[in-house]
Design brief:
Oligomer: single chain
Structural class: alpha/beta
Strand order of the largest sheet: 1-4-3-2-6-5-7
Order of helices and strands: HEEEEEEEHHHHHHHH
Strand content: 5-15%
Radius of gyration: 68 Å
Length: about 350
């Protein structure tokens, strides 16, 4: 049995094409690897939204407790002006939905990464979900936050030191030293005066001690009398209480009614007087009676005048019993006298 061998010849163009395809494949795979894409393993893509990325770039690592669990595969600008980061993470890491993706600094040189702070939720993030975000202060911001309070305290300290220096300079002034000496002298005089005053008060208290004792004894005697007469004072207060109760029980309404009735009676009497009813009404309203009384008053006045001028006409004294004279009208007598 004979063996037949076929020899296949590959021309140069085919070799160049195969090498070109292999090289392009290697280039694409290498480019994707450099961008953080691993096409040989399964991954989970989630998204995080930041107001600023603070130096984050594509292919920066994603850390969990310092261990690399994924990479940033894409950064894009949203319509709201925020930056959307696509995080490609290994599928074996289960991420709760309250986990925070925080931008942190890896070293002092400024290399950035995203640190995952896992939450305690029992619900986990799935493919395409958006995770919560946070941002760590940069080194400059951290230094400023620490240095700024120190700077403010230093400024306050400098202001205080300046005030102290001004005060020291003022103290070293000769005029101020003189004023201090005068002040101490014045304080000394005040203390001496206070000692003298206290001595006088002490002597006054000793002198008035006897009077204070008498006053105290009198107060004690008054309190003793009040204590001994407590029952009497109680009876007096009870009597006053009874009197006040009696006053409150007085029938003021009946009294007011009686006063109103009396006023009504007075009004009726006044009305009768004004209308001429009764003796008093006739006396008040009768004009003729007024004229007669007026004439009688005049006649009485004339009689009194004549009695004073001619008493013998009315009083006759006779030792032997003379006869009485008849009454003569003073007006007629005076008229006859005038005619003579």
């Amino acid at each position: 049995m004979s063996k037949i061998f076929y020899t296949v010849k590959i021309n140069n163009e085919t070799k160049v094409g195969i090498i070109t395809v292999f090289a392009v494949t290697i280039l694409i795979l290498g480019y994707n690897y450099l961008k953080g894409k691993d096409i040989f393993t399964d991954t989970v893509d989630i998204y995080a939204e930041y107001s600023q990325i603070n130096g984050i770039k594509e292919s920066n690592p994603i850390l969990y407790n310092g261990f690399v669990v994924g990479k940033i595969t894409k950064l894009s600008l949203s319509s709201r002006g925020t930056i959307i980061a696509r995080l490609t993470i290994k599928p074996e890491l289960q991420i709760p939905d309250n986990t925070i993706a925080k931008i942190v600094s890896q070293d002092l040189l400024g290399a950035k990464a995203i640190e995952l702070f896992l939450g305690d939720s029992r619900t986990f993030i799935e493919e395409g979900d958006t995770i919560r975000t946070d941002m760590e202060m940069s080194l400059a911001e951290s230094v400023n936050s620490q240095v700024l309070p120190i700077k403010q305290k230093a400024e306050q300290l400098l202001g205080t030191v300046d005030s102290i220096l001004v005060s020291v300079q003022y103290i070293l002034n000769p005029n101020f030293r003189m004023n201090i000496d005068e002040s101490f002298a014045s304080i000394k005089r005040s203390i001496e005066t206070l000692e003298i005053t206290s001595t006088r008060v002490d002597s006054m208290v000793k002198f008035q001690a006897a009077r204070f004792k008498v006053i105290t004894n009198n107060i004690e005697s008054i309190s003793t009398n009040l204590r001994n007469n407590n029952e009497k004072i109680t009876n007096i207060l009870q009597n006053i209480d009874q009197i006040s109760d009696s006053l409150t029980k007085v029938n003021f309404v009946e009294t007011i009614d009686r006063a109103n009735k009396a006023l009504s009676d007075i009004a009726i009497i006044t009305e009768k007087i004004n209308t001429g009813q009764g003796t008093l009404g006739m006396l008040v309203n009768d004009e003729m009676l007024y004229k007669n009384l007026n004439q009688s008053s005049k006649d009485l006045d004339k009689l009194l005048v004549d009695l004073r001028l001619n008493p013998k006409r009315y009083v006759s004294l006779s030792l032997f019993g003379g006869g009485g004279k008849k009454y003569k009208d003073p007006d007629s007598t005076s008229t006859s006298t005038k005619s003579k």
